Amino acid sequence: MGMPETVRQALAERYTVERELGRGGMGAVYLARDLRHQRPVALKVLLPEFASGAGAERFQREILFAARLQHPHILTVLDSGKVADEANGVTHLWFTMPFVEGESLRDRLNRAGRLGLDDALRITTEAARALDYAHGQGVIHRDIKPENILLTRDGTTLVTDFGIARAAGAKDGLTQTGAPIGTAAYMSPEATDEVEVDAQSDQYSLAVVLYEMLGGEPPFTGRSLHAIVAKRLSDPTPSVRSRAPDTPPQVDAAIERAMHPQPAERFGSVGEFAKALAVGRMGGWTGGQKGRQRPRWLVPAFAVGVLLAATGWWTLRRPVVPPAHPPIVAVLPFENQGDSSDAYFADGVADEIRTKLSQVAGLEVIARGSSIEYRGTTRRPAEIAGELGADYLLTGTVRWDKAAGAGRVRVTPELVDTRSGRPARSRWVQQFDASLTDVFQVQADIAGRVADALGVALADSARRELNAPPTANLAAYDEFLKGEAASQGMKGDQASLRRAIGYYRRAIALDSGFVHAWSQLSRACSSLYSNGVPSPEIGDEARNAAQRARRLAPNDPSVYLALGDYHGSVNPIDNERAAQAYQEGLRLAPGNVDLLGAVAMTESSLGRWDAATARLARASQLDPRSPSAARRVSAVNTFLRNYPAADSAADRAIALAPTSPAIVSLKVMAAVGRGERDSARAVIRRAARLIDPSALYSFVASYQDLYWVLDETQQREVLAAGPAVFDGDRGVWGMVRAQIYHDRGERRLAAAYADSARIAFEEQLRAAPDDGQRRVLLGVALAYLGRKADAVREGERGVELMPISRDGYLGPYVQLQLARIYILTGQPAQALDQLEPLLRVPFYLSPGWLRIDPAFDPLRANPRFRALAQGTTTMSVGN
User: Fold this and answer.
1) Would you state the torsion angle of the CA atoms of residues 153, 204, 419, 323, taken in this order, to the nearest 10 degrees?
2) Which residues on adjacent β-strands are paired with residue 168?
3) Main-chain phi, psi angles of 751, to 5 degrees
4) Which residues pair with 23 in a beta bridge?
5) Are 710 and 699 in contact (CB under 8 A)?
6) Under a CB-based contact definition with an 8 Å cutoff, are residues 579 and 566 in contact?
7) Buried b vs exposed e over 778-808: b needs ≥16 C-beta within 10 Å?
8) What pLDDT score was predicted for residue 565?
9) What angle do CA 552, 558, 562 make, to 5 degrees?
10) Positive or negative: CA dihedral 648, 650, 654, 656
11) Which of 470, 532, 546 is nearest to 727 (CA)?
């Protein structure tokens, strides 16, 4: 039976229903297209037989709880409503969720039987994070089982179906006394004992799910609830190692503890259970005993009494408690209580403390990219900690009193314990009031006090590291902090990078031994060189600054970040040397997310896509709220043509940085890769509500030649913009205008602006003659001018300088431009010779893209092109 026609008609203006996906519980789920946002969604409709009484209330509760919980591992609600069917006297409730391409954990287990240890622990850990967050929001799931855990195609775990969830501490008006809560094989003992369950019940159920993933079936099975309960009461919990011998003993012990019949004997929270699994996986527990007997919990009381009387003594054995997982700390932006112009100084204090804490062995520190989002937040500590996966938050205030002599600084840090299962509470707070000259000691003292408060022992060498000031010159430090604020983590525009370079130069002029200032100067120069018009002077400055930093501090990770950026950005680009530099930095600082992200993108350039994906996963774990981390994940998955994963990552990045044209353009690319121009245009329209339209449209027009995705009105706005919108790059400005006018058939104007681009590119190539990308763009400009031989010569030279074998990230783009040159010069066979290999390697070009990009219109009648556009080639990812 399909969707009720009343519902279909009522939602027709908002959703197009494509097919039924399945039924379960109280609802039917359909694949639908959200017409307003041009995206697929899962539309769930309450079945008519449940449309009254408790069924409707439970369905409403599922909507309420799922909409309330916003977490990367919880399937949330996008929209909801009701449709009255007066003819049949029924009200149809419905809601929509993101459409997830993948399968349920039950489907996976039915197919595979059991999972490997790594997959099982990853799924459990991600589900535990979702549940820990839900518990922090006061929501108990109560029906954790494989059917309610979804596994997306990109490997993400999602907890779903909050139909019988309950607010913690609330009376359950929908469950009669004595009625079981949940699904028999996964129920906690207390769920069958007519008591109100709490978060510990979800922990028990998740442990059963993990047991099944490893052992192939739940620990207790039977034909009925009563049979399962009888086994649970009479039999000890069987060791999962009896069914999966390769399970580490510590993981086995963690499962046993999480499934303890008494809730008080389990882990303090489901988050602590997940951390114990992580420690157990690494073999980090001590004190366990091999083959120890598990107690039979229902030994008759008189037998216990006889045994104790006969022996005269007894020992109460509690489960072995593993040492704590390394505490996870998030340093939030410190509040500036001085003049607004001093905000950069407060940021610098927090950043330096974060850097020092990240050097402490035994602590995990959330990266700056995720922490910075909470500047000025009014959100509750528990909520922030849940989103970041942090155990502790370090907050603080900074007041810089410049009028007091040489200046005084008052820093008041507070360490907040946000571990689940208890209200957030202050663990330590202290006010530091010192002269400005002592600010570095204050930062070191704060880092040391945090480590002490968390029970992390510091060796003498570690304390020396903490106490080492970045510079002895306060004026140099002030200039450095201004540079950091201007550069925005090396992701600012070119004007901001130039300002940052000026600050860094002044910092090293004041202190020539300031290592971090040298490193950041190098990185800013490399970024300006690669993202703007290449300047030999800027390239030389990037190299010299990185080399100076290495001579000063060969064991500083920031040095190798600068060296890697230089080798990967400044001509002649050397990705192997860049990767080696980043890896040396990671040897010194394995958790540095900047190094992880940088080496991931370099490995993609080297064709090491699996390694790149793994690095990005680690970076996302350490920097869970970073738009930069999500942006990189989206870009790599777009190249791998994994559009659901690319789209999901772009959505996360946009949610975190909604005003970034670069991130919006990645979502546009995912839509174009699927062959959906209307969806791509819808993305741009939504983004234009938050981003200056002129800046957005100009960026999209110049990004990967996406000018044609813009509609007529948007293109007119781009044509009205001057070179300044393109940061003064007349090559890019002229090329965009030439492309738009060419597609409109205005060939005279196209040629005029192509000539402007030609002049600019020739000037840029005089400064960087071996720049393959600019060489091939010069060829495209010449093709628009009708200079066939010159165009082909420059295009082929560009591919020679930047082949795919040398750079798997930029090389395909250069080869695509050569194909465009052949199309513009009327050589379809040669164009297809260039295009065909591009669909067999990771690259954003796809059959869907070929079908809608007007640049390929001259090839549409060609049988070879039609085969490409139909998607008959196979991609080779490499290692």
Assistant:
1) -100
2) none
3) -65, -40
4) 28
5) no
6) no
7) bbbbbbbbebbebbbbbbbbbbebbebebbb
8) 95
9) 90
10) positive
11) 532
Q: Which helix (H) or strand (E) holds 414?
A: strand 408-417
The residue among 94, 95, 64, 79 whose CA lies nearest residue 162 is 64
| Mean pLDDT calculated for residue range 21-47 | 79
- Average pLDDT over all residues of the chain: 82
* Amino acid found at 42: A
Over 50: is that where the pLDDT of 732 sits? Answer: yes
In the numeric block, the tokens 């706005």 are attached to: 717
Place of tokens 């981390």: 629
**Closest C-alpha to 122, from 251, 237, 256:** 251
Q: For residues 847 and 856, give the distance between their C-alpha atoms in angstroms, rounded to a whole number.
A: 11
3-state SS track over 745-780: CCHHHHHHHHHHHHHHHHHHHHHCCCCHHHHHHHHH
The tokens describing 566, both together, are: 């230089």
Burial of 286 (0-12, 13-18, 19+ CB in 10 A): exposed
For residue 732, how many C-alpha atoms fall within 13 Å in the half-sphere facing its CB? 24
Determine the residue type at 270. V
What angle is formed at CA 609 by the lines to CA 604 and CA 614, rounded to 5 degrees?
A: 105
Identify the CA nearest to 549 among candidates 498, 585, 513, 588. 513
- The pLDDT value recorded for residue 626 is 81
Assigned token pair, 731 = 């090559």
* Active-site residue, 118 included: no
What secondary structure letter does DSSP report for 182?
A: S
Question: Does the pLDDT at position 178 exceed 50?
Answer: no
pLDDT at 29: 86
Which stretch of DSSP H or E encloses residue 800?
helix 788-801
The answer to whether 684 and 668 have CB atoms below 8 angstroms apart is yes
Look at residue 179 in the predicted model and tell me its pLDDT: 39
Contact between 608 and 598 (Cβ < 8 Å): no
Sole residue written with tokens 């890697």: 564
Distance CA 10, CA 244 (A): 52
Pairing status of strand 157-159 against strand 432-435: unpaired
Q: Based on C-alpha coordinates, what's the Rg of the chain?
A: 30
| Ranges 303-312, 404-413, 694-703: which has the least confidence | 303-312
CB burial string 247-269: b at 16+ within 10 A, e below: bbbbbbbbbbbbbbbebeebbeb
Distances (CA, A) of 872 to 674, 677, 840, 846, 865: 15, 21, 10, 11, 11
Amino acid at 426: S
Catalytic residue chosen out of the listed positions 34, 79, 143, 478: 143
Looking at residue 53, what is its pLDDT? 52
Compute the average pLDDT of residues 112-134. Answer: 88
Q: Report yes or no: 212 and 240 within 8 Å, Cβ to Cβ.
A: no
Burial class (CB in 10 A: 0-12, 13-18, 19+), 5: exposed
Q: What are phi and psi of 710, to 5 degrees?
A: -65, 145
**CA nearest 598: which of 616, 614, 610, 584?**
616
429 residue type, one letter: V
Which secondary structure element, helix H or strand E, spans residue 486, and what is its range?
helix 474-487
Residue with tokens 């993609």: 604
Residue 877 contacts residue 640 (beta carbons within 8 Å) = yes
Q: Which residues contact 110 (CB under 8 A, 6 or more apart)?
A: none
User: Packing angle between helix 557-569 and helix 575-588, nearest 10 degrees?
Assistant: 170
C-alpha torsion sign, points 708, 712, 714, 720? positive
Measured on CA atoms in the order 92, 95, 101, 107, is the torsion positive or negative? negative
Rounded distance between C-alpha atoms, residue 105 and residue 156, angstroms: 11
Instruction: Judge contact between 781 and 735, C-beta under 8 A.
Output: yes
Contact of 640 with 842, CB cutoff 8 Å: yes
414 phi/psi in degrees, rounded to 5:
-140, 125
Question: Where are the alpha helices (H) located in 82-198, listed in sequence order?
Answer: 105-112, 117-136
Block residue for tokens 């681009």: 757
DSSP annotation of 571 reads S
In this structure, the number of other CB atoms found within 10 A of the CB of residue 182 comes to 21
